[in-house]
Design goal:
This protein is mainly β. The protein has one domain (6-113). It has one helix spanning 6-17, and strands spanning 24-28, 41-46, 51-57, 65-69, 79-82, 88-95, 103-107, 110-113.
Length: 116
């Protein structure tokens, strides 16, 4: 995953703070402490050339932490891409089969609930 430029990161943070989109990515070096995860942030563990995991709080407010594998050789796995200003898109969709049983997408930083 490629980090965005400092200027684009500043623009992203201003737009995110203004609620023009709901999610942003923070790249971190190691697995985060689940107690400090913030809403609407996708924490990506890794570096520019190699990413392992993504963590995010479930948007249904059940309090669960969702952990997604970003390792292409493992199944299931997800892909996170950022546009020029850092809005994330995750695919395929995220479907939580236990607990609150949520199903959603994140596209260009926006949460889209599944109707299925």
């Amino acid at each position: 995953m490629k980090e965005i430029s400092a200027l684009n990161q500043l623009i992203r943070d201003m737009l995110w703070t203004s609620n023009l989109f709901q999610y942003k990515v923070e790249i971190i070096a190691d697995n985060p402490n689940p107690d400090v995860l913030k809403d609407n942030i996708i924490y990506v563990v890794g570096r520019d050339s190699y990413v392992k995991w993504a963590y995010l709080k479930c948007p249904s407010k059940c309090g669960d932490i969702i952990m997604l594998s970003l390792i292409k050789s493992k199944r299931p796995s997800w892909v996170i891409k950022q546009d020029k200003i850092g809005r994330p898109t995750i695919y395929p969709s995220i479907r939580k089969l236990d607990g609150c049983r949520s199903h959603f997408w994140v596209k260009k930083g926006k949460l889209i609930w599944s109707n299925i």
